[in-house]
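Batch job 17 of 40 flagged for manual review because the log was empty.
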Amino acid sequence: MKKNENGQSMIFYKILQLLMKIPVLQNIRILFFFYDNIVSRFVKKPGKDSSKKRVLVVFPFALGDCILFLGAIENMQKIYPADEYIRTIACQKGYEDLFKQYFDQVIPVEYTKASVNPIGRIRMIKKMRSTYFDIILDPIGCEECSPNVFSTYAACGNMKIGVLEKSDKKAQCPEWMRKKVYDRILEIPDKNIHKIKFYARVWEMLGAEKTVAHPAVLKKIEIQQQLPEKYFIVFPSASLPVKQWPIERFAEITRRIYKKTGWTLVVCGTKRDAGTIDTFLNEIPEIPVCNMVQKTNVPEFIEVIGRAEFVLTNDTSAYHIGVAQKKRVCVVTGRYVYDTFINYKYQENEGIPPIIVCHKGICYNCNNMCKFKIKQIYPCVDENTVEDVWNAIEPFLV
């Protein structure tokens, strides 16, 4: 089967992009419930374990989401102490090293393939039904027909707990489906709160004492790779093309940063970022570069970002890692998840406020349900100009 530059099957990748460009089509994902229901009937249920209680946290989202989730993770360890519970997380394959220090067991699942690929979904269902759990917690939110909902549905356990946030938006996941999936739903009264605060609320509702929301505390590690003494990072890749600021604009900003500072450019990322980064580097052959793409695991990737002088990125994991590492970071973004993901307000925690390049507009927090016509990227991303970014970051390049 033909694959794109990121190594994904083209037919399923195009379906995923179409769902993002025409939001109403995202409702089609309700059909996955019926597909999963049929497949589950043919997958054997696991037996119950008579040892310590088992709790499963379902977290199938991307690296940036994982970094946000870790901002209040210490509360989980208080609610489910290690001497009483075997604590397990189901996460995207490749993120195992990130979670091993917090969980007793990690179930790696190829959720990216399971998003719209029928064979990938079957594999996901089999993985989720490999162990019986006393408690299954989906802390992400069940407003949408997203992978966490279907993954929770596939898993086997005594009590399944979901979360529902108060919102003005129509819930994509219908009430009847939520009742089929979850035994208990925690209702969070706040609207559009930042995700770190959202997860802190979840732990509070599960019994933790008053929590403090803060960017993740990421462990520093030694790495074998040789890095320049002073460098800046540009991360032009994005989780979805509709969120990706144009490559040629990243290239122009990169030239200006290098001219002003003389710092070496470092690029990093995984196989799925390689195609975009290659295109980016072809635009700037005159800039000295240290290419770390596909040369790091997740903890090393985090460490590389943590040693940079400056980070320029799309709305992606590099942004949240940079904030957590207290680096000077600039994100070029739109308004689609502005308050829930982008707008950090943690100056009181001695962090460095991020530089957010995002035009004001009539719409905020649409949660990727854009009401405007989308050509290649979201209009609220495309309206950010090179001069907008340069004027925002130039005073901090010292």
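Reviewer: the log was empty due to a logging misconfiguration, but the result itself is present. The first strand starts at residue 53 and ends at 59. Unflagging and moving on to job 18.
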